[in-house]
Amino acid sequence: MGTTQLAAQEPKYWHLKTILNDALDSDFAVGEILPNERELAARFGVARATLRQALDQLELEGRLQRRRGVGTTVAGPRMGVPVARPEHCWPGSAPDAWRTVECAEAPAPAAVAEALGIAADEPVHTLRRLRMMHGQPVGTEILYIPGATVPGVPGFFAAGGRARAVLRELQSLELDGESRSVELGVAGAEDAKQLERLPGSPVLVVSTRYRSGGATAAVSVSTYRADTCRLTFDDSGSVDVSPYGSERQAS
Fold it and tell me: Does residue 159 register a pLDDT over 60?
């Protein structure tokens, strides 16, 4: 990558992002570590703050990954991650790509409590779950289930047994339907740890309401790595319409 005169009519970081994006296709291989920020800034004659803005944007677009203890590497093609199945079913029903890593009883966040129609200080079953694909974590989820939804779960169960009992009781209910929303967010400390990312990394947040008996019976908040995941809403996971999808698939 040689020194390039940046255009004055657009933000420096955006033009630099375009130049770097082209260089990732022509000069680097997937998984290759980029030079450090000082070297890159010197090559392009920009301030490190401008360089960081360009790198942040490329990470958001899935072109780069920042890995703790490794540095900034060229990302491979995003993985298609199905977030819906042809037949609606409760969490934990087969086939379920998630595994429970923690189960506790604690008050839900205020917005979740409001969605569930419960008091803000009412404890709910809180299951933290992890999703793996190709040997790496791609998503973490917190599933909130009020005690009133699963009244048959005894309080004396240990965490592992309680998680299985909660999901089994939930699956015995009739599922009326579910609704989802997707938004861009940043990883908090716990999600970042589970996803092997840095806190503040871009993530995709999928919030789901499960309805039964005319009310919201459970809420899940799933957090996916934005740098490696392409969410799909069918079971194929095969559609790629990114502007550089074909070039990266061939890398």
Answer: no
Q: Give the residues across from 130 on adjacent strands.
A: 99, 140
Cis, bond preceding 154 (omega within 30 deg of 0): no
Residue ranges per structural domain of the chain: 12-74, 79-236
In this prediction, residues 201-209 reach a mean pLDDT of: 91
DSSP SS3 for 211: strand
Sign of the CA dihedral running 192, 99, 231, 144: negative
- Here the tokens at position 199 are 């806190």
State the pLDDT at residue 251.
34
- pLDDT tens digits, one per residue of 66-109: 777 788 888 888 888 888 765 678 999 877 889 999 999 999 99
Asked if 231 and 81 touch (Cβ cutoff 8 Å), the reply is yes
Among candidates 179, 201, 176, which has minimal Cα distance to 188?
201
Cβ atoms 164, 152 nearer than 8 A: no
* Residue whose entry in the numeric block shows the structure tokens 């260089």: 23
Superfamily per CATH, domain 79-236 = Chorismate lyase-like (3.40.1410.10)
pLDDT at 207: 95
CATH class held by domain 12-74? mainly alpha
